[in-house]
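=== RUN LOG ===
request id: a7f3
mode: sequence -> structure
chains: 1
length: 247
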Amino acid sequence: MNIWKFYGVTHRDHLVMNPTSEAKTNEFISLLPLKPNARVLDIASGKGEQLLRIVDKYDATGIGIDISPYEVKAANGRASDRNLGDKVEFIEGDGAKHDFEPASFDLAMCLGASWVWGGHKGTIEALKKLVNPGGLIVLGEPYKLKEPSDAYRELEPELAEGLVTHAENVAIGQNAGLNLLYSIVSDHNDWDRYEGLRLRAAELYAEENPNDPDAKPILDRQRGEHDFYLKHGRDTLGWAIYLFRAP
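=== RESULT ===
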């Protein structure tokens, strides 16, 4: 089973591929202090929804990069459908390996993919180099609501080891010289919808595609992940979007 196919199937009903509601997505976009003609970079851009909305709202130009061919194809299709194909480009690739010009963006985003640079701090340091002086950095990052259980640590050792609190996520940015402008925190309703839509998508895909040899592995994996979420993740893991200004 191709991992990007798995994520493409299980996120088919999501506008954004993280546990952020429609209202909170619109809120963080509306609060961006961006001027017309701003240049925007979105690392791990997924379906491209956030970038497309920013480009449209602020008359900006943008580049999105994602490692999944499924999402890049979908994002470019969305850009064309909205007549934004001349203002935004979606590239298939690894954001950490792409050669972007330093200090060339007014806003750089990475929502839910800090693993690209080895974590929250590494992502901040990488994006600092890509934005203009005084540029904006938007990060989507998990945080711990409580100390992970032994079962959580056993099943997600790397994630559990790196989890810090919401306040510590902010402090990491501030210690790197960033100024926090705003943060938006997801709640249980946001998480339940995110995880519930993933399970529903996998269940329906298996029903609709009985001849696909990947259908059962996708469903089995998603059922397992949803069970883990209910038993261990729901009360352990939080999610926030952080809006920082660079020096």
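=== NOTES ===
The chain has a mean pLDDT of 96.
The domain at 14-187+238-245 is CATH 3.40.50.150 (Rossmann fold).
=== END ===
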